[in-house]
Amino acid sequence: MSSYSDADVGALNRVVDAVRRCPGDIHRPELAALKAWAADAGATFAPAPAPAEAPAHDVDDESDPDEERWTLHDAEPAPIAEKAGEPSDADAEAAMAAKAEAAELHSDGKGAEALAKMSEALAHNPGSAAYWGLRAVYHLEANLPRAALHDANKALERNPQNVRALRVRGTVNRHLGRWEDALKDLSAAQAIDYDDDTNPILRYVQARATQRHKRALARRQAEEAEEEAAAARRQAELRRQRQQEAAEEEAEAEAARAAASGMPGGMPGGMPGGMPGGMPGGMPGGMPGGMPPGMEAILQDPEIVAAMQDPEVAPKLAQMMQNPMAAMGMMNDPKVGPVVQKIMSKMMGGGGFPGAGGGGMPPRGGAAGGASRAAPTDDLD
Questions:
Q1: 52 φ/ψ angles, rounded to the nearest 5 degrees
Q2: pLDDT tens digit sequence for 172-197
Q3: Which GO terms describe its molecular function (predicted)?
């Protein structure tokens, strides 16, 4: 029959107590043998909780590898009910007695029992920052970082200058890669109560925080440079678009001016003899040396201008301008006739067709003046 020493039994009891408080610990690698034995005995376990990593923006994942990086593998401790107001004398005495027992157990290396007694002390006096800070230390020594962080936060809610809690939280944050948070807590703890053992951790955290700050600064500068370059590219593209639009508008305006003033590509040779100097063969006693009335309206009509650029219509219009009487022979032309009629209507509204006299075009068909007169008859008388 195997015999167990008091130390063996005490160690086993501490492990069992710890697993009772944090059932998820049964999945830890160092307890694999205990888990296997319990499973063979018929025990079942809840699934292992997914490790809760620190938020991405708080954790430094870019620096050199950290062999002492932790994960929050454990669960938070069981909640302790709050009590309103100050504790009663009985509660205060019971809390102090439990805390004293916890300190004695901790000195004897009985961490699990010490934690249990500190939980008892907090149940009597949950408003004590000192009790929360002390239990945070015990949790940290038991490799329960999530529980330690929980208790440190509770202590600092009640007393922001609790040195134990500042050191515990700073240490946990150091092992989670939260360099700025760790630097803040450890610096505050050292300012309140300097500790030689804390100083090496503080120097390490300062170096890591400086590296992180430099990387963040370089990244921000690179982002700003890229934003400035992108803004410059956008401005250049806007200038190019404005220049292109201005060039297109100028080309359209130039084409419109050319179409309105000189009928480019229109009648061969333009108006015979050109506009200046008058229309050759114009009205007798008419308007030598100027544009006939109505011509401005003709040159502004897009349909007439387009017809003047038609290679089939332009020569006939040129012929009509030289010999207005030829217009009568063009009236039946399906392409020229409508244009001639439109020109005639505009010219007659302006005082007559050039070269056709003040009365406009001669009437189509019939006698050339007013009502027809009867033929003379012989006077038989």
A1: -95, 110
A2: 999 999 999 999 999 999 999 999 99
A3: Hsp70 protein binding
